[in-house]
Amino acid sequence: MSSIFIVIFGLVGFSIGWFVYSKFIAEKIYRLDPNFVTPAHEINDGIDYVPTNKFVLWGAHFTAVAGAAPIVGPAIAVYWGWVPALLWVTFGSVFFAGVHDMGALWASTRHGAKSIGALSSDVIGKRASALFMVIIFLLLVLVNAMFATIIATDMVIFPSSVFPAWAAIPVAVVIGVLIRKNFNLLLVSIIGVSVLYFSIYIGSVTPMALPGDIFGLGPNGNWIILLFVYAGIASMLPVWLLLQPRDYINGAQLVVGLIVLYTAVFIAMPDVSAPAFNPNIGKDTPPLFPILFVTIACGALSGFHGIVSSGTSSKQISNEKDARFVGYLGALGEGSLALITIVAVTGSLYAATGSDWDALYSGFYEGPGQAGFIEGGAILISTGWGIPIAFAETMLAVMVVLFAGTTMDAGLRLQRYIIQEWGSIYNIKVLKNNITSTLLAISACLVLAFGVSAGNYPGDGGALIWPVFGGTNQILAAMTLLLISLYLMRLGRPAKFILAPMLFILVMAFWASSWYIVDHYQKAQWGLVTIEILVMITSILVMLEAVSVATKLRSGEIPLDTSSDKSSDDDAATTQE
Question: Can you supply one Gene Ontology CC term for this chain's record (predicted)?
Answer without folding.
Answer: plasma membrane
